[in-house]
Write a structure and sequence with these properties.
alpha+beta, 4 strands, 26% strand, flat
């Protein structure tokens, strides 16, 4: 049996150094805002440039964009260990 939510889903869009830029129950609006910030992240200019963009539904990641060139936290720690040796 499928669980039917008793309340609307909560959608959030979070952008790296900006924070939460959207919170609401409209999935189409959330997706539109997510896509706009992904474009800004890829654009190379402005506060959202190069930032991770995440779309959440009730706190669970639905979609996530990050710049592949950016170093992951694990990669950064490994590089620091290598340099420190």
């Amino acid at each position: 049996m499928t669980d039917i939510p008793t309340r609307p889903w909560l959608y959030e869009v979070i952008v790296g150094n900006i924070g939460r830029v959207h919170e609401g129950s409209d999935s189409y609006k959330a997706a539109s805002i997510y896509n706009r910030y992904v474009d800004l992240s890829k654009g190379g200019y402005g506060r959202a440039s190069g930032e991770t963009v995440t779309l959440l539904r009730d706190g669970e990641i639905v979609q996530e964009h990050w710049e592949e060139e950016r170093e992951s936290l694990e990669e950064m720690r490994e590089r620091e260990r290598e340099l420190g040796s």
